[in-house]
Amino acid sequence: MTNKRKARIDAAVANLDPESRRVMEPWLRAKYGDKTALPAVRELFNERREFRDFCGGDLAKTAIDTLLALRFGEQLASQEAVRHKMAELRAELMGEHPSALERLLVERVVVCWLHAYHADEQTCNMGSITLPWAEYRQRNQDRAHRRYLSAMKTLGTVRRLALPIKLDVNLAATVETKAAKPAGGLPSRLAGAMSSN
Fold first, then answer.
1. Residues 73-114: pLDDT tens digits?
2. Same domain (yes/no): 120, 76
């Protein structure tokens, strides 16, 4: 790290309280390429999950922020409205006790939902553009739609595979018991079929 960057970091953390300085100094050093700060940064990320996410560890959030900034720019109320809708979708899809894999897939579905509708809107608002640019937007729309459907299908498949397989053991025991007994009390067609086996 250059002396100029070190001086800039020292100036940035000079007026912070000790705890804030303990957090910010190694993060700033690592941000500017100081590998010696990485052990302290790793320790901070283990202590504080929210700090890890703030520093870019939550890539789904980064993708959402990027898409919302592309769509709405500085319209913060509109961005917040979409975030609120996404939180509702996330809560509905999560269910009561989602597995780690389900949580990842739900987040993917929600991000793909945003991207698919953003692509739809771009295609609808093309105005007068060149044919190659229109085709590009339509391909982008189709791809976003396919990724959205694929994410939903994968989530559904994972949930179906996670369902417990229920066997009615009593029914199986009843059939075996009846097969072992004389067929006198059974309907004639069933008795005949059982005796031939």
1. 999 999 999 999 999 999 999 988 999 999 999 999 999 999
2. yes
Whole-model pTM: value is 0.67
What distance lies between CA 130 and its chain's CA centroid?
35
Cα–Cα dist 168/186, whole Å: 21
Distances (CA, A) of 122 to 25, 64, 70, 173: 42, 17, 11, 62
181 Cα distance to chain centroid: 56
* Residue 184 within a domain: no
Residue identified by tokens 């050093």 is 29
Report which of 96, 100, 104, 98 is spatially closest to residue 151, judged by C-alpha positions: 104
| Domain with 133 in it | 59-162
CA angle 160, 166, 172 (to 5 degrees): 145
Residues 6+ apart with CB under 8 A from 70: 118
